[in-house]
Structures are given as C-alpha cells and as structure tokens.
Amino acid sequence: MALYQATTSAPVNIAVIKYWGKRDTKLILPTNSSLSVTLDQDDLKATTTSQTDPSFSKDRLWLNGVEEEIKPGSRLATCFEEMRRLRRKVEQSQGEPAISQWFIHVASFNNFPTAAGLASSAAGFAALVSSIAALYKLPNSPSELSLIARQGSGSACRSLFGGFVAWQAGTATDGLDSYAVEVAPREHWPEISAVICVVSDHKKGTSSTAGMQRTVETSTLLQHRIKEVVPQRMTNITKAIKDRDFDTFARITMADSNSFHAVALDTEPPIFYMNDVSRAIVNLIVEYNRASTAAGGPLKAAYTYDAGPNAVIYALKEHIPEIVNLVSHYFPQAESARSPLGAEPLPAGFNANII
Ligand code: ADP
Ligand code: DP6
Ligand code: CO
Questions:
Q1: Beta carbons within 8 Å of 234's beta carbon, 6+ residues apart
Q2: Which of 53, 77, 138, 199 could form an SS bridge with 309, CB 3.0 to 4.6 Å?
Q3: Does an H or E element contain 180, and which?
Q4: What mean pLDDT is predicted for residues 235-239?
Q5: What phi, psi does 219 have (nearest 5°)?
Q6: What's the pLDDT at 49?
Q7: Ligand located closest to 126 CA
Q8: How far is ligand 1, taken at its centre, from the CA of residue 244, in Å?
Q9: CB atoms within 10 A of CB 73
Q10: What's the confidence (pLDDT) of residue 146?
Q11: Region 323-346: what's the mean pLDDT?
C-alpha cells in the first residue's frame, strides 16, 4: 500500500483584539471574542508535512527537527483524534479507503522563533490541521477546521483564514459555536502592512496557556475587560476594517494591546511580557503619531504586543519605509525588523537578521 503524504503551510496571525482567558481549558473556549490579521503566506509561517502508512506503529511529531511527545489526552492527541473522526465520515459516506486506522507522522518547521510571543502556536496548529486535512482529502470548510485547530491552540483557529479574521467566542458548552470567520479578505485592504521587530527570540518565561489561566484565576481587571471593553471594541474595529479607517483601527489596536498587558500585570503574581525595549518602541510610535496629528494629520502607525516583548507595528504601506528607518535608527541593535504583508526592502546598513 502506498504511503500518503501532504505538505501545507500556515502563516502567523497577530491579534488586534487579544484573546486572553479560557472559560473551558480542555475544549479551549475563550472568555472573549478576538480579531486578528493573518500575515501573508511567504512571511512568518509554519510548514508541515504529514504522512500516513500502515507500517507506522504510533503517531509521532517532530518540531524543527526535534521529536515532541504526544501524550494521551494532550492538545496534539485531540487534534489527531478529531481529524480521524472527520476522515471516518468521508470513508463511511463515500467509500474512501480506510486510512484513518493508520498512524500519522508529522514534521513541522517554523521559519521564525518558536514560543517567543510571535504566535508560533497559531501557525503551528493551523498548519497541522490543514496538512492532515489535505492528507485525508477532507471537504470541510476553514471554519469547520478552525474548530479543531482551536483545540490545539486557541489563536490557531484564526490562521485558517487569510486577511482579517474574528474568532467568535460562542456560548455553547460543547464549543460548536466557537470558531473563526472571515471579517474581510486580504484584498479588501491591501495597503495595510506590518513591521515585526524581534526584540528577543528567546522562549518566553510564562507560556500563553499558563499565563492566561493565572489571569482568569486572579485578575479582577479581566472581568471588566471581558464584559465592558472587548465587545464594544470588536464592533468598532470590525467597522473600521470594513471602512478602511486606519485611524480608528490604530487607536483600538493600541488600546487593546495596552489593556491585555494591563490584565497580565493585574495577575498574581504579575506577568511582564514587555521589556524596556518594547516600551521604548511604544514611546517611539506615540511620538511618531504625535508629530503627524500635531500637523493635523492622522495616526500613521499602531503597535501591538502578544505574550512576549516583540513589537508588531501595523501601518499603511506608504509609511512603512519611514517606520523601518525610524526603528532601525533608534534600535540599531534590534535583531530583526521586517515588513510582512507586502515586504519593503530594508534600508542598506540596517543591522538586521532577517528571519
Ligand atoms: P507563541 O507565542 O510562539 O505562540 P506559545 O506559548 O503560545 O508561544 O506556544 C508555543 C508552543 O506551540 C510550542 O512550545 C509548541 O508546543 C507549539 N508549536 C509551535 N510551533 C508549532 C508547530 N509548527 N507545530 C506544532 N506545534 C507547534
Ligand atoms: C496574546 O493561542 O497561544 O497571542 O490557546 O493556550 O494555546 P493557547 O494560547 P495562545 O494565546 C494567544 C494569546 C495572544 C493573543 C491572541 O493571539 O489573540
Ligand atoms: Co501562542
């Protein structure tokens, strides 16, 4: 019997309304809806190959060349099980070969730092699910597959779509209404672009999973964020995206990054994901915007930080060269800065290590 194999890749997505908190840790159901922009396919991405063959004796996964244990009941084990369940449906209804009974081997590579707050778990689990979907030739929609990617890592459900994507928190206890939907395709707003400043590529001290759980258990500010702050922002930023209103998009993006890092700080013991360089980049963007608004212009850039010190700066393409120059001028030691979502060449002499 021939070996079956498929390779796919999935880019990272960087949230502008942050997911932080679970109401169900096993099913990975969030305490609030979130919204992100998926980077373009050729930028920061995970590339995953999966194989299945009757000779395999167990499911195995290698991440960046190192084997990871697949523990029973783990998120990885759940994703494998759920994908097999979808394949069995196709086998039963369409008489496809019963390959779901064989074990699967998976090899995945990230072309950017893993577990450093650049959404590797998002690209990783989205690539895992889409590669097994290709291996199994599944007919399911991205939203249906996002229900499974969500159970690998919450943020992964949004990387099944390109462009502007919302993860609807849902209310059902079985999680069937907690999936990703497209808000607008990438082509709707091609002018928007992102610069990623890798302040540190080290593994973060507190994983997203552990950090958000501690926030749910100890932060009173989180309740305010979930109930009063995020619902309104979801509505407003969705409209800003539909209207291509960068000023509002930028204002909400920065406010929500600040709010997320405030609830991290309101956690016991407090979590500090941003460092001095991250904060200095915030000040730089604030000053850059102030110079524009003082002259009667709009906001020109929006910073956002995930669970790590690395900055993502969203801006319209026309301002990207200026922003890259600015960052490289003030932070010549920055390990890398690049502009996915339509990369601009970096200026000569920029001390960057392009990832
Ligand atoms: P990040 O900020 O990079 O998303 P997380 O703490 O959320 O960091 O998740 C990191 C974990 O995600 C890794 O330790 C690994 O278990 C998983 N992961 C990362 N990349 C992949 C991948 N390509 N395939 C499968 N799992 C991955
Ligand atoms: C700050 O999706 O990595 O990046 O669901 O536990 O795997 P798990 O967490 P993860 O958390 C991402 C948190 C964030 C915000 C976001 O991407 O929305
Ligand atoms: Co993650």
A1: 17, 33, 35, 166
A2: 199
A3: strand 180-184
A4: 98
A5: -90, 125
A6: 97
A7: 1
A8: 32
A9: 9
A10: 98
A11: 61
Whole-prediction pTM: 0.94
Cα of 245 from ligand 1 centre, angstroms: 33
Cα distance between residue 135 and residue 236, in whole Å: 39
Cβ atoms of 310 and 117 within 8 Å: the answer is: yes
Ligand at minimal distance from the CA of 152 is 2
How far does residue 151's CA lie from ligand 2's centre (Å)?
A: 12
Q: Which residues have any ligand 2 atom within 6 Å of their CB?
A: 15, 18-20, 28, 34, 119, 121, 153-155, 208-209, 306-307
Q: Whose CA is nearest to atom 17 of ligand 1?
A: 121
Look at residue 1 in the predicted model and tell me its pLDDT.
Answer: 57
User: What is the token pair recorded at 219?
Assistant: 């932060």
- In the predicted model, what is the mean pLDDT of residues 239-264? 98
User: Looking at ligand 1, which residue's alpha carbon is closest to its atom 26?
Assistant: 124
- Closest protein CA for atom 13 of ligand 1: 115
91 CA from centroid of ligand 2 (Å): 34
Q: What is the pLDDT of residues 60-101, one digit of tens each?
A: 999 999 999 999 999 999 999 999 999 999 999 998 899 999
Following DSSP, what letter does each residue of 113-170 receive, concatenated? -TTSSS-HHHHHHHHHHHHHHHHTT----HHHHHHHHTTT-GGGGGGGSSEEEEE---
What is the predicted pLDDT for the residue at 333?
A: 59
- Give the binding-site residues of ligand 1, using a 6 Å CB cut-off: 46, 63, 108, 110, 114-122, 124, 127-128, 153, 207-208, 306-308
Angle at the Cα of 15 from the Cα atoms of 10 and 16, rounded to 5 degrees: 145
Distance 208 CA to ligand 1 centre (A): 10
CA distance 159 to 127: 8
